[in-house]
Amino acid sequence: MTNQTTTQPVQSASGDLCSDASALPLAPLAMPKQVLTLEGGIARRAFSALALMIEGLKHNFRRAG
Amino acid sequence: MQNGVDADRGGASARRPDGARALALTSSLLAAFAAAMVFYTYGAADGLSSIDVIRTGLILLSTWWLAWGAATALLGLTSRQHSLPPRVSAQITGKTVVLVPVYNEDPTSTFARIAAMDDSLRALDPPLLLDFAILSDTTNPAIAEAEERWFAQLTRRQNSLGRIYYRRRKANIGRKAGNIEDFITTSGAAWDYAVILDADSLMEGKTIAEMIRRIEAEPRLGLLQTLPRVVKAKSIFGRAMQFAAGFHSPAFARGLAAMQGSSGPFWGHNAIVRLRAWADNCGLPELPGKAPFGGHILSHDSVEAALLARGGWAVRLDDDLDGSYEEGPENILDHAKRDRRWCQGNLQHSKVIGAPGLPAWSRFSLFQGIFAYIAPLIWLAFIVASVAAITWQAELDYFPEAHWPLPVFPDNHAPKAIGLALGIFGLLVMPKLLVGLDAIVTGRAKNFGGALTSLRAVLTELLLSSLVAPILLAFQCRSVFQVLSGRDGGWPPSNRGDGHLSFSESWAAGRWISVVGLGGLAMTHAFAPALTLWLAPVALPMMLAPVLIWWTSRPASPQVFTVPADLSVPDILARHDMVLTSWSNPIMELRVA
Questions:
Q1: How far is CA B111 from the centre of its chain?
Q2: pLDDT tens profile B256-308
Q3: Which residues contact B150 (CB under 8 A, 6 or more apart)?
Q4: Which residues of B26-61 are buried (b: 16+ CB within 10 A; e: fewer)?
Q5: What residues of chain A lie within 8 A of the CB of B169, using their CB?
Q6: B167–A9: do the CB atoms touch at under 8 Å?
Q7: Is A15 on the interface with B (CB under 8 A)?
Q8: What is the CA radius of gyration of chain A?
Q9: By mean pLDDT, which of B34-43, B121-130, B407-416 is the weakest?
């Protein structure tokens, strides 16, 4: 079925299998660090929500005035 | 049919869990408030004090936790038809690597498992040749040397150089999560999917193939978790845990599956992940501050599941997938050691639970993990508060009315207290008894030796777990106090083997629990003698802790706590045993080759 072999065994000059063949292939995949802590999340969002509420109140006061 | 998924059954990632969640949450909250109300009226009978209010709050929380577990099991028993995964028939096209992180494990047994799984995959029709990567974080030089030796043996046996890889990190930064991250950032782009295992994991080839088909069939599925069965247990404790995991866990897992929707669990192993989804979403940062709360994330699996869900990927538990195995701790001390690690990891999630953008269910899952270690403290606080309440209780006043010559006797609220205790006891045992009944009615009990044998095992396990529970509660409370006082538990390697403990080892590890149990009972008898009998079921097993730790580590008869693997050895376990035997017998190995 699916032969998934990603690298072929490497033969050395003497015919022995080189240890290189057991090395993982070089195929990097980036893993960006995720934002997990409150500083970057809820606190900032709460602050933004508060700022929006104040803006809304100001707007309403201006309209009422 | 699209992507090999039966359209009439729908993609399992599209399950609608809202009803199940609402049902479980409502019923558990109702049970908790009912218990709290009963306790409140009982406590208020002789006048309400602040300690009664505290005790009512503690009863509310602890009953909710018990009721939540019971509701999960009941959902599992009733939601079988809704949690069926899709049938798939597509050919496998993507490339898969099986990751085996190791850390000071016995390489003979671990590498024999890889040989067995590779054999099992190659025995499929048509055969499936997958890549394996052994990711070693081993720090013990002697074990590292043995790993290299056994790797050579493995590649010779499987003729797999260039398909089975071995690499060892010099510095094990980030522990297991860091080990896998190191692999992905070096080589992850070479594969589409990764089956993540533990050193003690074993999976049938057909199960791995089915997992690949299922993840290929659903392009939005980021992670598929199986329900591993515990196998190869030999001790009394190990076989009881093995039985409980095999007999009771499927119902709890099905209940969980009904509620989780696409924000399912990841238990760190025996699962398949979509590598690009994983790489994009699961790069774990170090948490600010020092260990135990800061630093590398210990219980990384729950966080990774939450991050995948945040990234819009489905995370699913398919409890119907058989052929997924792991080994468990063989004695209470190994269990407590593993639990210490989980305790620190779960409490550390208090720093992660507020992460931006997490689905509500993921936050709730993290909360459950934290609460699992807070719950023992709540029980402890309730016991202490109950003793204190009686100690500080005011003398009964039989003549509260001035100038009234006849005494006024308070109402008898003892039946309420007894009813409440029975209700809480019922929440503890009812799910297990119902699972036992369901197994007998559906015929599942046949796999556990028949109706009578499985019923006897259910009752014996209930008795044993009731005896062991106060000891585990003591270890859990100590773990929580250690974490809260800033003590890092480190990364001790897992013990694998028969797990038998000598009495002196058990005495050394458990005598402090005896002292706490004896002291607690003596103080209760001195200050609140009415509570002595109530406390005895908790205090007596604690006093006997060294004996129970030693006795439960002794070998058990194979007839006790029968599980399906005792009646019919799974193919993959037989293959593993065969490889191990051949490796200990070079002549047989030559014949196999």
A1: 25
A2: 888 888 888 999 999 999 999 999 999 999 998 888 888 899 999 999 999 99
A3: B107, B108, B111
A4: ebbbebbeebbebbbebbebeeeeebbebbbbbbbb
A5: none
A6: no
A7: no
A8: 30
A9: B407-416
Q: B403 versus B300: which is more confidently predicted?
A: B300
Q: Which helix (H) or strand (E) holds B447?
A: none
Q: pLDDT digit string (tens) for B333-368?
A: 999 999 999 999 999 999 899 888 899 999 999 999
Nearest-CA distance B121 → chain A (Å): 11
Judged by CB atoms closer than 8 Å, whether chains meet at B354 and A7 is answered as: no
Residue A60, min C-alpha distance to chain B (Å): 30
**B151: closest CA among B132, B171, B172?**
B132
Contacts of B183 in chain A (CB under 8 A): 24
Structure tokens at B329: 């701790």
Task: Provide mean pLDDT across the span B151-178.
Answer: 90
Residues B542, B313: Cα–Cα separation, whole Å: 46
The residue among B52 and B587 whose pLDDT is bigger is B52
Report residue B96: phi and psi, to 5°. Answer: -125, 140
Overall average pLDDT of the B210-233 stretch: 95
Alpha-carbon distance A37 to A35, whole Å?
A: 6
Name residue B589's amino acid: E
Query: Taking the model in full, what pTM does it have?
Result: 0.84
Alpha-carbon gap: B140 to the closest alpha carbon of chain A (Å): 21
Pairing of strands B271-274, B221-226: antiparallel
